[in-house]
Amino acid sequence: MADSAIAVTAGSSTNINTRTESSNGNHRQVVVIGDPATNAGVAPVDVTNGLSVNITNASLTVASHAVTNAGTFAVQASSAGDAAHDAADSGNPVKIGGRARSSEIAAVSNNDRSDLLTDLVGKLIVLPYANPENFVSGCISSAMTGTTSTSLIAAPASGLRNYITQITVSCSHATQGTDVLIQDGSGGTTLYVIPAAAVYGGASITFPTPLRQPTTATAIYCANVTTGSSIKVSASGYKGA
What we know:
Blueprint: E1 4-8, E2 13-23, E3 26-35, E4 40-41, E5 45-46, E6 51-55, E7 59-62, E8 98-100, E9 116-118, E10 135-144, E11 150-153, E12 161-171, E13 178-184, E14 189-196, E15 201-212, E16 220-224, E17 231-240
Parallel strand pairs: 1-6, 2-7, 8-9
Antiparallel strand pairs: 2-3, 3-4, 3-5, 10-17, 11-16, 12-15, 12-17, 13-14, 13-16
């Protein structure tokens, strides 16, 4: 007989039993779905030449009769990776998907698991860049001639700070140069000093490691050290926690 297949109804509880039947002096081993004593259930199936059982969402009770199979069964290890975002890290890292965001997520605690972030079209966000919605920039286009602190990049929302990745300073004065201070807030801590010589001296600086503003929810300012220069400043970067 060719291999037979037994389909078990989903959600059922079914006994699988074996018995030996004799006919004209010949013996054969059969599988019975149901009670072998009463023949209740599905008709016996000859397993002399093999048997496959198709089980879908079924609960099976196997009776004490032995069913032998010469094959080898591989037990698959269960997969881990079910720790949620911001939960304590545990298990093995299975998921590789990202979390699409149009704004910064709240910072998690040290040693917690965190989602990978993408922008809204699935591009992975990695430092020193951020999602486009968090890009920041500023420009002082009216020349600074005094030493008063002038706002360069606006303050971000509560809990966020500016990260500067590029600054350009130019001095258009014919004779007077100056140093330009990049400040954490108006008159605040100097984060960077940029020299700007007369006659269009200055500098264009890219920060491989972004210039991190120490204080959150605070604007970036700049100021001349020397009165009389004619300074313009542009900067760009991103805001984040």
